[in-house]
Amino acid sequence: MAQVQRIIPIVASAALAGGIAPAERIQPRAVSGVFTRGRWALVWLTQALFYGLPWLNWGGRQAVWFDLDGRRFYVFGTVLFPQDLILLTGVLIFSALLLFVATALVGRVWCGFACPQTVYTEMFMWIEQRCEGDRRARLRLDGAPWGAGKLLRRGGKHLAWGALALLTGFTLVGWFTPVRELAQTVPTLAFGPWEAFWIVFYGAATYLHAGVLREKVCQHACPYGRFQASMLDPSTRVIAYDEARGEPRGARARGVDARHVGQGDCVDCTLCVQVCPVGIDIRQGLQAACISCGLCIDACNQVMDKLQSPRGLIRFRPLAAGAGTARWRRPRVAVYALGLLVVGGALAWGWAERPELRLNVLRDRSVLARLSEDGAIENVYRLQLMNATLQPRRLLVSASAEGAAVRPVAIERGHAIEVAPAATAMTVLTLRMAAPTAQQQQQPGGALRMIPIRFEVRDAAGGQPLKAWSTSTFALR
Ligand code: SF4
Ligand code: SF4
Predict the structure, then answer these.
(1) What pLDDT, on the 0 to 100 scale, is given for residue 327?
(2) Would you list the domain boundaries of the chain?
(3) CATH number of the domain at 357-475, out of 1.20.140.10, 3.40.50.2000, 2.60.40.10, 3.40.50.1110?
(4) Using CB atoms within 10 A of its CB, is residue 175 exposed (0-12), middle (13-18) or buried (19+)?
(5) 208: left (phi over 0), alpha (psi -120 to 50) or beta
(6) Of all protein residues, whose CA lies closest to atom 5 belonging to ligand 1?
(7) pTM listed for this prediction
(8) What confidence tens digit (pLDDT) does each residue in 373-423 have?
(9) Is 293 a pocket residue for ligand 1 (Cβ < 6 Å)?
């Protein structure tokens, strides 16, 4: 039989109820445990990628470089042009669906573990603890009058925060500008105007969000925090206090069975509240401010261990009692999973089929059709070739007339084109065609003024075969 649990309504936290920040700054207590380790694992993983990737070289070039000036993105051995931005849209849709499915299954775990706001706040809080001490020492420092000691601790913290924030801004710019060249300008601070702006702007934003505003960003500025409740259903796992087991709360000695003294398992030590980075009491029920970080679980499990009581007074559990059996087989999870499958498949197909050579043809409209001295008709075209590989290419252009009125076509000039690695080349090409005879004009389609033309480019080196084609028209008059 399903365990009877009271469904605790979602209520606004004290901080949210007034719509303003709490008067006192939250000073969370440090805690250890499986969720804390999980959070730090994600801090290391995400920051190793963020700070480390720009320094990685691949084929003699920065492995990941979003070259906005050159309008191409290098992702290891792949070169992406603005035409490939559809893939970025696919990645964004895929990420959003992944977020939805994770939220439907386990609530706001993204917020608690991997959101940049959480990750940077964790790093800034680590610095704060090193400079100002544990929670109690920080609270004492908050209330202490200004003096040399306070100035030193606070000043040291803000200096370290500033250095980390600027490093973050520098690294962000390093994704868009060759980071090694950027690093050489650090001693002289001779950054370009845009680089200087973004280092300072992003650094200041990091400092403000992770050092000063912290949980207020999640509570008042993040739209996801507002609509995530609509993605929960009775089977969604959320972090919740087991009220039936914990109440009535009260102090008791270690090893004393709570039931024998007429109490619940909660000893009202408030450790779960002290470790909470958003300053809420999970025992009051699921709250909009809760970011599912699991730190209250770590804290409470430590208390339960000391009391020799079973763990799990605070734990992940279904939003509604007895709704845990069909965890995966739920309509919304199925819909999100199907969406993930479709978008993921389309992305994989799009990536695999992404052309490494592109050809765009524009007919020169200023010179429509001209008659040469020998009576042939000439059309002029502008060809744009995009080489999305990291090898130089020598490309041969060919053209053929399509449709009913097939006539031989000759390329007059510029049929071999050199294109540098990851570059675009423009060239002008002249096509010649014999003027249609009276007999040809009698044939089906022979009286056409415009003949469809197909252009094709091939890699002339004979190595890795690459081919691209495009169409245009040949004006006969
Ligand atoms: S209540 Fe628990 S899970 Fe929610 S934010 Fe606070 S510590 Fe994290
Ligand atoms: S940490 Fe556990 S025992 Fe302590 S107050 Fe919170 S729920 Fe009760």
Answers:
(1) 61
(2) 357-475
(3) 2.60.40.10
(4) middle
(5) alpha
(6) 290
(7) 0.83
(8) 777 888 888 889 999 988 888 888 888 876 534 455 656 555 678 899 899
(9) yes
